[in-house]
């Protein structure tokens, strides 16, 4: 099985966490409909509202790559929402061990 997981942590610029939250929320529902998506969840750190965490599960690396590079909702975020991101703290590609 080629399925795999992705964890991404984004950190909002100071004072722009509400803006980033809304722009990130806008990608969740369409991402869940992307071909090959098995799970797509967005979290906010309880003690730091500037930190957003995504946990994703995909049928294959190719499906995740297509989501990240070819979908309109992700392109739109990259063009219109990414300026509210101070940093991408981590981007892990993982496989389930047990």
UniProtKB/TrEMBL annotation:
PROSITE patterns, sorted: ABM
Coiled coil: none
Pfam families reported for this sequence: ABM (PF03992)
UniProt GO MF annotations: monooxygenase activity
Domain ABM: 4-94
Keywords, in A-Z order: Monooxygenase, Oxidoreductase
Name listed for the protein in its UniProt record: Antibiotic biosynthesis monooxygenase
Lineage: Bacteria, Pseudomonadati, Pseudomonadota, Betaproteobacteria, Burkholderiales
